[in-house]
Predict the 3D structure of the following.
Amino acid sequence: MDLRRKVEDIFDIAAQPTVDIVSSMFLEGVAGSVVQGVTSAMLAYKQKRSERMIEEFMIETRKRQQELEEKLIELDEERFIEIKGKYFGLVLDYVMETKQEEKIKYITNGFINLTSMEKLQEDVILIYYDILDELNILDIRVLKLYDYFSRSESYVDILKDANISYDQYALIQNKLERLGLIESKAQSKYDELFDNVKNMGDYLVKLSNGKKATLKFKKSSSGSMNSFVLTKLGRQFLDFFTGD
């Protein structure tokens, strides 16, 4: 596959009077992104998969090109160079290693969202993408169930649609918990209790020193002790990859 020609076709460069920011970023970025001339059957398969993922990344980006262009134009020169010179290549690495085409829309959304982050931290971005790399589409569907304000299906829908047992669903929950994206409400209640005890101690110390004090008390979350809730990381992860 001639990736440069793919860029020109997808972004319709021939029809444009000048090459825009996003198109030029892809032209420069994908040119040397795939090793040429591989002969191993396994490497050839991986190369074809990588090329397919890059093409899908371009297609997804093309759908939101105007939005991305506007975000990039608003950046100061230093931030623009950082996005184009470092983060685009970083994201492209994950695109090439992705095994499920459906995940490309999340990778694309994350890239567009990082362009407008007030404070870019490479380690944080890597954490988000490393976690995404460990998840498959079914894992993500289950994780989104804990976003109670925007979920569009139930776990019963997932069991039926994916044809999995409740035990298999529980394994996904355990995986999400291990990655720090959800936690049991039992743990959440323990954390609330710990914070309330700490706040009570701070309150009493201030009173004993004759200072004005307000008691901060966290209300216990409702629900079964055996159910799960999003962690702070889980909330940030979903906002980064699924939020606009």
